[in-house]
Amino acid sequence: MSYKITSDNPYFYKVPENMLVSSLKRYSTKIHCKLAEFHLFRVFAIVRIYSLACLSCLAINNSYAQKKITPVITWLTPESISYGTSLSNTQLNATSNVSGTFSYNPSAGTILNAGTQKLSTTFTPTNKSLYNSTTASVNILVNPAPAIITISNTTQTYDGNPKTVTVTTSPLNIATTVTYTGTSGTSYSTSTTAPTNAGTYSVVAKLNNGNYIAAEASATLLINPGTNTKIDPVISWANPSDIQYGTALGKKQLNATANVSGTFVYTPPSGAVLSAGSQTLSTTFTPTNTSQYNSATQNVTLIVKKATASVTLSNLSQTYSGTPKSANVTTNPAGLSYSITYDSNSGAPTNAGSYSVSVIVNDPNYAGASTATLVINKATPRITITTGGSYTYDGT
Q1: Which of 154, 155, 162 is nearest to 205 (CA)?
Q2: From residue 278, how far is each of 165, 230, 275, 281, 365 by CA, in Å?
Q3: Burial class of residue 258, CB neighbours in 10 A (0-12, 13-18, 19+)
Q4: Which H or E run contains 28?
Q5: Of all helices (H) and strands (E), which one includes residue 279?
Q6: Low-confidence ranges of the chain (pLDDT < 70)
Q7: How far is CA 24 from CA 13, 75, 257, 319, in A?
Q8: How far is residue 365 from each of residues 40, 116, 244, 247, 290, measured CA to CA in Å?
């Protein structure tokens, strides 16, 4: 007896329903099997059925659910591209081991930003009853595209408004960052704000777009004075820190600056020693470029503190003699004027006793003081007896 078994799934075979288990005997049965899915060749298998149990195993396949297969997707990592290159079949070129269609994200025609980007695909098989849909992804490196920066409009005339250079990029309209820095004697800290005053400025332009790469561009911006118009230089000079009398003026006090090149003349000059008190320092600035800039003046206030003087009191122990007794006062520096009091009185005391002495320096450039105690000791009485002559006692 021979049976012919056919199947749409090469992994499972249906046993003909008319194959009755009860009729099985120990004999050979030829079964012709056709692998319908592959359609490549016909297999003839000789199946020797030995027992009822074997046939029962084959019969179970009659009701076994068929499993779907997941297709194999092949998609190599694409070569890097430059920004501006649209996605195409060169990058979106996945393949499968079965027939079907691919859907890509991002889709063909998309321009990706520079950097490492992810490409994804979803594969839908033609025979959905046998195969699952599946996905795959790869990364692609997008390099920044080359660009060129050009700076122009670098000579302008002062009119009270900021002067901005013209920056052009190739490709056009790429975002840039431009900075200005004063140079050649022009004082102007690096800033993205365009300058207004006449002077010379260093200009640097850089790309501000990660999809492009370019060398920074540099140029010099010259702002000329307006017709018959001179500019007043800006003088910066803060009030110096206080000094003590006797300190000569120097660079710590005479340190004015200007926003353009030139020279300063100070009054009082360097080396001068000022009296104690509030003093005015002045400077006159003469610009190097007198055709563009005016001369300028500036004043600041300097506080000169009094210097410290020492006071020494001596001759503080004396003896009553009926005349005022004064303490001796010595100052350093010598010869300074001062005021002295005894128990708060300006006059020196005469009578025996102890007196509080206070001395205060009155010099305009020095300050100093001292205190002590003056002691006037009692004098010893002196008795004189004159001999000679005669006296008559009268009871007194």
Answers
A1: 154
A2: 48, 35, 9, 10, 12
A3: buried
A4: strand 27-35
A5: strand 277-287
A6: 1-66, 227-228, 384-393, 395-396
A7: 19, 53, 118, 160
A8: 121, 77, 9, 12, 42
Cα radius of gyration (the chain): 57
Strand pairing partners for 49?
27
Cβ atoms of 121 and 133 within 8 Å: the answer is: no
Distance between CA atoms of residues 92 and 100, nearest Å? 15
Q: Would you say 62 and 15 are in contact if contact means Cβ atoms under 8 Å apart?
A: yes
**Beta-bridge partner residues of 181:** 202
pLDDT at 382: 76
pTM of the model: 0.48
- Indicate the burial class of 357 (C-beta count within 10 angstroms; 0-12, 13-18, 19 or more): buried
Instruction: Specify the residue for token string 């006159």.
Output: 284
Q: Which two tokens stand for residue 98?
A: 């079965």
Residue indicated by tokens 């360097």: 270
Q: In what order do the strands lie in the sheet with 199-207?
A: 155-157, 217-224, 199-207, 176-183
Q: Please name every residue paired with 201 in a beta bridge, in sequence order, or none if there are none.
A: 182, 221
Long-range contacts of 121-128 (CB under 8 A, 24+ apart): 121/73, 121/75, 121/92, 121/94, 123/71, 123/73, 123/94, 123/96, 124/100, 125/71, 125/96, 125/98, 125/99, 125/100, 126/98, 126/99, 126/100, 126/101, 127/98, 127/99
Instruction: Give the Cα separation of 66 and 8 in Å (integer).
Output: 10
Whole-number Å distance between alpha carbons of 209 and 187: 31
The C-alpha atoms of residue 192 and residue 180 are separated, in whole angstroms, by: 6
Please give the structure tokens belonging to residue 155. Answer: 């000579």
Q: How far apart are CA 145 and CA 78, in angstroms?
A: 18
Contact 231, 198 (CB under 8 A): yes
**129, burial (CB in 10 Å: exposed 0-12, middle 13-18, buried 19+):** exposed
What SS3 class is residue 85? coil
Q: What confidence tens digit (pLDDT) does each residue in 81-135 have?
A: 999 999 999 999 999 999 999 999 999 999 999 999 999 999 999 999 999 999 9
Compute the distance between CA of residue 325 and CA of residue 358 in angstroms, rounded to an integer. Answer: 15
Round to whole Å and give the CA distance between 22 and 16. 14
In the chain, which residue ranges form alpha helices assigned H by DSSP? 52-60
